Amino acid sequence: MNCSKFLRKALWCRVERVMNICMLTWEYPPRIVGGIARHCFGLAKALAKMGHSVYVVTLDFPGASYYEDSEGVKIYRAKIELGHPNFIVWTLLFNHFMEKRIAMLSKDAKFDIIHAHDWLVAPASIASKHYLKVPLISTMHSTEVGRSHGLHNPDSYLIDGIEWWLTYESKRIIVTSNAMKNEVEEHFRLPSWKIDVIPNAIDASKYNITVDRSIVKRRFGIDSSERIVLFIGRLVPQKGVEYLIMAAPKIFGQHPEARIVIVGDGWSKDHLWNLASSIGCQHKIIFLGFISDQDLIELTLSSDVLVVPSVYEPFGIVALEGMAAGVPVVASNTGGLAEIIEHDRTGFLAYKENPDSIAWGVNKVLSDSGYASWLVQNAKRKINEVYSWDAVARKTIETYEKALRE
Amino acid sequence: MSSKLASIPDEVYLLCILHNVGATEPERALTLEEIARWTAMNPSKAEQNLNKLIENKYVEIKENFGVKKYFITIDGIRKVLSMYS
Predict the structure, then answer these.
(1) Would you call B79 and A27 a contact, using CB atoms and an 8 Å cutoff?
(2) Average pLDDT, chain A
(3) Cα A186 to Cα B50: distance, rounded to the nearest angstrom
(4) Residues of chain B with pLDDT under 70
(5) Which CATH number fits domain B2-84: 3.20.20.70, 3.20.70.20, 1.10.10.10, 1.20.950.20?
(6) pLDDT of A380-405, one tens digit each?
(7) From edge to edge, which strands make up the β-sheet containing B59-64?
(8) How far apart are CA B23 and CA B70, in angstroms?
(9) Which of A274, A319, B25, B76 is a Cys-bridge partner for B72, taking CB atoms 3.0 to 4.6 Å apart?
(10) Which among A62, A82, A87 has CB closest to B74?
(11) Per-residue pLDDT reduced to its tens digit, A27-67
């Protein structure tokens, strides 16, 4: 066997090796806050499907058991035994309980990799890396400086410091878009070779159902003749919902049959409601709050356009959901969204923080059914080719392998 | 984060405190006096905010031997976590 053949075979053997992966995340279903829970759920399941042993260590949640084996993924929920009103102190406390859980687990399972998701689990992940002496990989889903538009108070500085600490302690870092790679590389002064870009993915098969749009609309108090302009996400400034609301008069002016439906909740909900009232559109904008996953799928399938007006979006998994559901997407030309969506091909990219541009995109989709179908057709093709969990899991294993080799 | 907490409505601030101190299940519910202490709000203001949260289904009451105790619901937990994610 010549040298290159030998090396190839050795590499293949390593890739085929079954790993014990310990994944740390502060949110995992049913504890769903933002995209991290869905990301970890999809990734863990796909890694387990490949034959790896995946241990997810996360936080407790009312109604969820402390241990669960779900589709081959072992889920351990740490009980938060002690709380504190201060958020940062609370975070450090729950990290202690996660670390304790990992220490107990490591008596029976010999972990090959620790995989942390975001700064919230940094202390437990870093401590585990040191006492288990295994490589730490971290996925940076976003940064404090990006989420908060800069660092404006002591807590933000501390979170930023913890994020840097996590990247410093990690053997490799995963980000979900090139925009995020640039942000992390520049802000934390990291070497480019240490960062791997692995996109998010979705399970597109969940949209392979037929729904009666009239029935779904009626369930949410919408007339069957009305057309749904949908927003899904946390109601926080980062998501830019106010720009969609400000676009409403121009949308309703051209399409009186349109109705804006906002799914999700968050601390700026009252402000958004007041904004809708102040422009006289409150009767045409519905705030649904949190709804079940099944309702969300059915509502998405019954929508005419999905708007993702984010101000800061490292990836934008909700845009993928819309694309997979066959709903035309109008999104801000920012961060990961600008990489997922090809303007006028797989979606419409609107100027960031610009209600006029959002209205233009929504009106174009609602007015031109040929254009809307063209976007949907191209978007579905792209989803199937690029954004599957199997592909993401394979790339993640490559990152683990690199970390083990380095 | 602290500036965010300063700008959010009082009842959401109270909701965050309830979450962070662990009043997330009926067995870990807190009395009005305990909540007033944790949040440094006077009891009548705390009660007023709790009533708003109950109305919006973010908080529930558990009554035991005539003592009212408050804990946050799953929607309440998600509302709090939306601030931190």
Answers:
(1) no
(2) 93
(3) 44
(4) 1-7, 85
(5) 1.10.10.10
(6) 999 988 899 999 999 999 999 999 99
(7) B30-31, B67-72, B59-64
(8) 7
(9) B76
(10) A62
(11) 999 998 778 998 999 999 999 999 999 999 999 999 999 99
CATH of span A204-386 = 3.40.50.2000
User: B77 vs A61: CB contact, 8 Å cut-off?
Assistant: yes
- In the numeric block, the tokens 């979705």 are attached to A202
Pairs across A and B, CB distance < 8 A: 77
**ipTM of predicted assembly, 2 dp:** 0.82
Residue among B3, B22, B78 minimizing CB distance to A265: B78
Q: Nearest Cβ partner of B79 from A120, A156, A265? A: A265
For residue A390, CA distances in Å to A178, A203, A396, B12 come to 20, 10, 10, 40
Chain A positions in Cβ-Cβ contact with residue B24 (cut-off 8 Å): 62
Question: pLDDT by residue (tens digit) across A221-275?
Answer: 999 999 999 999 999 999 999 999 999 999 999 999 999 999 999 888 999 999 9
For chain B, give me the number of helices (H) and strands (E)?
A: 5, 3
Distance CA A143, CA A132 (A): 27
Instruction: Please tell us whether the domain made up of A14-201+388-405 is placed in CATH 3.20.20.70.
Output: no
Average pLDDT over residues A1-9: 48
Amino acid B8: pLDDT: 79
Q: Is B3 on the interface with A (CB under 8 A)?
A: yes
B82–A32 CB contact, under 8 Å = no
For the segment A331-340, the average pLDDT, to the nearest whole number, is 96
Domain ranges of chain A: 14-201+388-405, 204-386
**A271-293 pLDDT tens trace:** 999 999 999 999 999 999 989 99
Amino acid, single-letter form, for residue A14: R
Verify whether the Cβ–Cβ distance A153 to B21 is below 8 Å.
Answer: no
